[in-house]
Specification:
Strand order of the largest sheet: 1-2-3
Helix content: 55-70%
Number of strands: 3
Largest sheet: 3 strands, antiparallel
Keywords: Annexin, Calcium, Calcium/phospholipid-binding, Metal-binding, Repeat
GO cellular component, one term: cytoplasm
Pfam family, one: Annexin
Order of helices and strands: EHEEHHHHHHHHHHH
GO molecular function: calcium ion binding; calcium-dependent phospholipid binding; phosphatidylserine binding
InterPro entries: Annexin, Annexin_repeat, Annexin_repeat_CS, Annexin_sf, AnnexinD_plant
Number of helices: 12
CATH superfamily of one domain: Annexin
Distance between the termini: 39 Å
């Protein structure tokens, strides 16, 4: 247990989550890396948001590839029922996304899509003014397709008027040994330019060299 009273998660857990929303939200960061390093910042103290964030960074999450398809179908239906009722902070939703393995969640989300005709993310876009809903959607996006999630964070950081160095550095540094190759592929697919070229065009000096080295640029 750390100084804030949170139990450290097991080394196998992996989740990265980042949200920004001006002065109101400031910044929320949750990063749990497979190597066992982890860190988080909770600058959004409302209890309803802590109800989701705390389990995400403390609950045990199995890291294996085994999938229970019966469970996936059952929990996909639970998620659909709760989301249809707009019970976004229901204990069952939080339990499922905070404890199930990445492989199990993938099967659950796939069944949700196949059985209910659309992706779970689409059903979480109903109320764009609901801050908790935005947080839940971001968490599921990160769990479902982390490479797409972090590509978006990088794209917004680089294309922002005046590079957002905090976001750019955080993603590159924390994902360098986790899934950077997939993120680079997604960035190229989404933007028609490689990530190393985008970084080189938007940064300079030792900072540029550090970022390029971290993403595996061979000439860095």
């Amino acid at each position: 247990m750390d100084s804030l009273g949170y139990n450290h998660p097991p080394p196998a857990t992996m989740l990265g989550l980042h949200l920004t929303k001006g002065a109101k939200w400031k910044r929320i960061t949750v990063g749990l890396l497979s190597q066992g390093n982890w860190g988080y910042g909770l600058l959004c103290p409302e209890k309803i948001k802590e109800k989701l964030l705390v389990p995400l960074i403390t609950a045990y999450r199995y890291a294996g590839d085994e999938v229970n398809m019966t469970l996936a179908r059952k929990e996909a239906n639970i998620l659909h029922e709760k989301i249809s009722d707009k019970a976004y902070n229901d204990e069952e939703i939080i339990r499922i996304i905070s404890t199930r393995s990445k492989a199990q969640l993938s099967a659950t989300f796939n069944h949700y899509n196949d059985h209910h005709g659309h992706e779970i993310i689409k059903d979480l876009e109903a109320d764009d003014d609901d801050e908790y809903l935005k947080l839940l959607r971001a968490a599921i996006e990160c769990l479902k397709t982390p490479e797409k999630y972090f590509e978006k964070v990088l794209r917004l950081a680089i294309k922002k008027l005046g590079t957002d160095e905090w976001d750019l550095t955080r993603v590159v540094a924390t994902r360098a040994e986790v899934d950077m190759e997939r993120i680079k592929e997604e960035y190229h697919r989404r933007n028609s330019v490689t990530l190393d070229r985008a970084i080189a065009a938007d940064t300079s000096g030792d900072y540029e060299k550090m970022l390029l080295a971290l993403i595996g640029h061979r000439d860095a």
